[in-house]
Amino acid sequence: MEMKQLNDQCYVFCSSVNVGYVRNHDQGMLIDAAIDRSAIRKVVRQLEEQGLPITHLFITHAHADHYGGASYLVKNYGVKIIAPTFESVILANPILEPTYLFSGNDPLDELRNKFLEGPPIKIDIEVNEGQHQVDRFHFETIATPGHSYNQMALKVNGILYAADSYFGKDELHKHKIPYITSVEKTLLSLEKLKNVQADGAVPGHGLYEIDFKETIDKNIEYHQDLLHKVYCIILDKQTISHEELVSVFCADMGVKSSSLGPFLLFKTAVTAYLTALINEEKVKHYIQHYRWMFKINGEEGS
């Protein structure tokens, strides 16, 4: 992981999943904890080499690639952990993530891996949107649901740590179908971030940018384009089942999902676009022969 200093207090460790860091005198707060012990050790090793403190951890949301190394930090540094309400419940009970992805069923063993379920974490301080003072750190949390239920971006000392509220331009096209749970909330969160005044921003996946709002606009355009693609598939097929729609859309986007975990992530995202179209009353849904079916609202046949 490459350590990059952003200003006199803020840093980012650049990797496939970025980790932030803020120093204030004898205290240091990490922002997210990477996917596992091995990844976060690369971060703390560099901090220790520079004599920088490790006392706090802010977890932006309860996805395993952002908190998997937290238990290592608790065990070895006794960090005080801050996290959003609701997300904290999942962090304390991480089996919930593979459970909700698996439609509420007890997850198969293959879903209980480090990509979907990190070690359980006890949260010391739960936060909602607003201004906060925790020991030496003053920061603002900004609710950015859509990727996760109560994800919080963090603005501190002029830097916006945006978590997975938006993706870097290259990462958008790499992921092809970014994981979201709600299109409406994702778009509202993106519009909210365009109004945030910051010296620069760090996404959870992607490059630090001073002029980050163009990238946010690209995210908005990308989600709107995927929403239109789903609509066009239903229009072309006239009637289509949920299972077939997921299959057609994933094939059209060229994603790889040969194992169950990635497939369930893609399925959740496709369903988010579907529910947006239903909520906009552009698509009608119904049950036929024990299948969840869709058609363009106003079209004949059901």
From TrEMBL:
Transmembrane segments: none
Domain of life per record: Bacteria
Domain Metallo-beta-lactamase: 16-205
Name of the protein this chain belongs to: Glyoxylase, beta-lactamase superfamily II
Organism listed in the record: Piscibacillus halophilus
Lineage: Bacteria, Bacillati, Bacillota, Bacilli, Bacillales
